[in-house]
């Protein structure tokens, strides 16, 4: 009997056994570069438009009541505003003295001896500090009548204590103080007021507006400024600022060298050919300053006060000195034969101290309520000097 060979069931499934999977893995070197974050751009989209506003639901009675309340509030606000305005006006009237009547009816000029006095009815106008009667030289009749007109325009005595309402009176009192101090100094007294005034005027001479010129074309090119601009200035045609300044300054300096400061050479403090700086003014020589100081010291109180007022108005002591020397009847140095015709007019003095502004406004125009107000104020100051010294 032949033995049969049997196969184990598990041996028949050996073919289906899982065999190991062999794969060749690639080795990758890790990167040292930091990962970059993706730029996430938001999604832009335009949605539907918002709904139109709708009126709030309410009864007609509620709407009428709301409208009435608003009208009442408006009326109340208007009444409160009117009350505030009336209170401010009453306070201003109280400060200015407009509500109180003045104690005089008429202001007049009377001649007393060799002087003129301004009378308020029968009372003479007095100095606010010394309480002395203001006495004006007899030949200054226009000044006396202008002073009387200034007082006649006042509404109360309180307004007379406000300097901006009586500018001519303040100027006259300043001249009287300077004249009294000079008289006292002649008798051996001190004159601190005149000394301080002269020192202040000499500081204006170092930065005189008539002597501060724009650099010439060749000097401007050297500093890299470029070509000079031109303007069509009234009365001068198409000129540069330097040409305008030279035309204005030359006749004034010539008159000063011939009749006021003989032998004194006054040069520009800015814009000179020998100046390396375009910002810092060149100081005047010591002999020039001494000659000008001696001339100022020789003036009487009226002329010295006029030089001070004109200098403060135009920021030019040279123009102020030329202006006073042409109008004064007590000039220290002999005036030319046609002294009256050689007097510098108010318009000419204003133009000589306003060259830069005129040059710019010729191109860009004037600012309303600014340039015109400054012009009127400067002319007023120069006009008061004419009354004071003539």
Automatic annotation (TrEMBL):
<dbReference type="InterPro" id="IPR011419">
    <property type="entry name" value="ATP12_ATP_synth-F1-assembly"/>
</dbReference>
<feature type="compositionally biased region" description="Low complexity">
    <location>
        <begin position="1"/>
        <end position="14"/>
    </location>
</feature>
<dbReference type="InterPro" id="IPR042272">
    <property type="entry name" value="ATP12_ATP_synth-F1-assembly_N"/>
</dbReference>
<dbReference type="InterPro" id="IPR023335">
    <property type="entry name" value="ATP12_ortho_dom_sf"/>
</dbReference>
<feature type="compositionally biased region" description="Basic and acidic residues">
    <location>
        <begin position="63"/>
        <end position="75"/>
    </location>
</feature>
<dbReference type="GO" id="GO:0033615">
    <property type="term" value="P:mitochondrial proton-transporting ATP synthase complex assembly"/>
</dbReference>
<protein>
    <submittedName>
        <fullName>Metallopeptidase MepB</fullName>
    </submittedName>
</protein>
<comment type="similarity">
    <text>Belongs to the ATP12 family.</text>
</comment>
<keyword id="KW-0809">Transit peptide</keyword>
<feature type="compositionally biased region" description="Low complexity">
    <location>
        <begin position="23"/>
        <end position="38"/>
    </location>
</feature>
<feature type="region of interest" description="Disordered">
    <location>
        <begin position="1"/>
        <end position="75"/>
    </location>
</feature>
<keyword id="KW-0496">Mitochondrion</keyword>
<dbReference type="GO" id="GO:0005739">
    <property type="term" value="C:mitochondrion"/>
</dbReference>
<keyword id="KW-0143">Chaperone</keyword>
<dbReference type="Pfam" id="PF07542">
    <property type="entry name" value="ATP12"/>
</dbReference>
């Amino acid at each position: 009997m032949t033995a049969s060979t049997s196969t184990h069931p598990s041996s028949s499934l050996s073919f289906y056994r899982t065999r190991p999977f062999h794969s060749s893995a690639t080795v990758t070197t890790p990167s040292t570069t930091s990962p970059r974050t993706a730029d996430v751009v938001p999604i832009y989209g335009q949605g539907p438009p918002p709904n139109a506003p709708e009126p709030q639901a309410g009864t007609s009675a509620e709407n009428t009541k709301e409208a009435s309340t608003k009208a009442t509030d408006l009326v109340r606000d208007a009444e409160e505003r009117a009350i505030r305005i009336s209170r401010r006006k009453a306070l201003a009237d109280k400060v200015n003295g407009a509500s109180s009547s003045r104690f005089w009816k008429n202001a007049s000029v009377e001649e007393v001896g060799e002087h003129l006095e301004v009378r308020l009815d029968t009372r003479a106008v007095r100095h606010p500090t010394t309480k002395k009667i203001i006495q004006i030289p007899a030949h200054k009749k226009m000044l006396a009548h202008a002073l009387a007109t200034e007082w006649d325009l006042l509404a109360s005595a309180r307004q007379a204590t406000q300097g901006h309402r009586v500018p001519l009176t303040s100027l006259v009192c300043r001249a009287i103080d300077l004249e009294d101090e000079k008289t006292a100094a002649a008798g051996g007294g001190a004159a601190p007021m005149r000394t301080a005034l002269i020192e202040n005027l000499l500081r204006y001479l170092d930065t005189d507006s008539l002597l501060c010129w724009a650099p010439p074309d060749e000097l401007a090119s050297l500093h890299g400024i470029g070509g000079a601009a031109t303007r069509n200035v009234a009365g001068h045609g198409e000129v540069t600022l330097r040409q305008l300044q030279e035309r204005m300054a030359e006749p004034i300096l010539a008159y000063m060298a011939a009749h006021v400061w003989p032998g004194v050479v006054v040069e520009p403090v800015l814009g000179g050919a020998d100046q390396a700086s375009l910002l810092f003014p060149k100081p005047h020589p010591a002999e020039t300053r001494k000659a000008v100081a001696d001339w100022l010291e020789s003036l009487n109180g009226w002329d010295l006060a006029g030089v001070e007022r004109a200098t403060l108005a135009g920021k030019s002591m040279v123009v102020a000195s030329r202006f006073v020397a042409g109008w004064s009847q007590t000039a220290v140095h002999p005036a030319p034969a046609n002294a009256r015709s050689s007097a510098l007019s108010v318009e000419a003095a204003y133009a000589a101290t306003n060259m830069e502004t005129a040059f710019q406004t010729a191109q860009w125009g004037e600012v309303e309520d600014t340039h015109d107000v400054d012009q009127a104020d400067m002319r007023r100051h120069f006009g008061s000097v004419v009354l004071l010294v003539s």
